């Protein structure tokens, strides 16, 4: 039996973690029942392709999957002001960015909006699991975001 998650009303700028079958999808809450998220729209490869920033109703993005508010990095990084997160997220809607599963995915996107730092803990955990604990991969993943495009002006 799946654990039941408690669904709280998100606040502006909250990060939403959505539990898909084999991964987590991430979005940022921008108010009035809407989220902004970064979606890879390539049917052939999830590693490197183009993606689009979309604004959609939270329930259309979540579907039947479990989700939770996940601002767990607030203890590590100072969150940007909610109005700045929302303004920047909405300004990105409709933009096409280079999607890379390892260096710039939906989790990197929303964490850069909230914290000014693009990180993906699920990528770091996966890299550590594949390599058997070698921290070099996690450091390389963090360093690779410097080559991304589109969000470095926050």
TrEMBL record:
Protein known as: LRAT domain-containing protein
Lineage: Eukaryota, Metazoa, Chordata, Craniata, Vertebrata
GO cellular-component term (any): cytoplasm
Occurrences of domain LRAT (ranges): 15-122
GO MF annotations in UniProt: N-acyltransferase activity; phospholipase A1 activity; phospholipase A2 activity
Span of the signal peptide: none
Pfam families assigned: LRAT (PF04970)
Gene3D superfamilies: endopeptidase domain like (from Nostoc punctiforme) (3.90.1720.10)
GO BP annotation list: N-acylphosphatidylethanolamine metabolic process
Family that this chain belongs to: Belongs to the H-rev107 family.
Keywords (A to Z) from UniProt: Hydrolase, Lipid metabolism, Transferase
Xref: InterPro entries: H-rev107_PLA/AT (IPR051496), LRAT_dom (IPR007053)
Species this chain originates from: Neolamprologus brichardi
């Amino acid at each position: 039996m799946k654990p039941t998650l408690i669904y709280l009303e998100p606040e502006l700028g909250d990060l939403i973690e959505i539990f898909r079958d084999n991964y987590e999808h991430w979005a940022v809450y921008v108010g009035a029942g809407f989220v902004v998220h970064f979606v890879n729209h390539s049917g052939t490869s999830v590693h490197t392709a183009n993606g689009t920033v979309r604004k959609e109703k939270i329930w259309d993005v979540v579907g039947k999957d479990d989700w939770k508010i996940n601002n767990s990095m607030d203890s590590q990084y100072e969150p940007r002001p909610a109005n700045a997160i929302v303004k920047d997220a909405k300004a990105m809607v409709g933009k096409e960015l280079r999607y890379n599963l390892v260096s710039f995915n939906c989790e990197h996107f929303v964490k850069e909006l909230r914290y000014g730092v693009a990180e993906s803990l699920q990528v770091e955990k996966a890299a550590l699991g594949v390599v058997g604990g070698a921290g070099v991969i996690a450091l390389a993943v963090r360093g690779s975001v410097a080559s991304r495009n589109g969000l470095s002006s926050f």
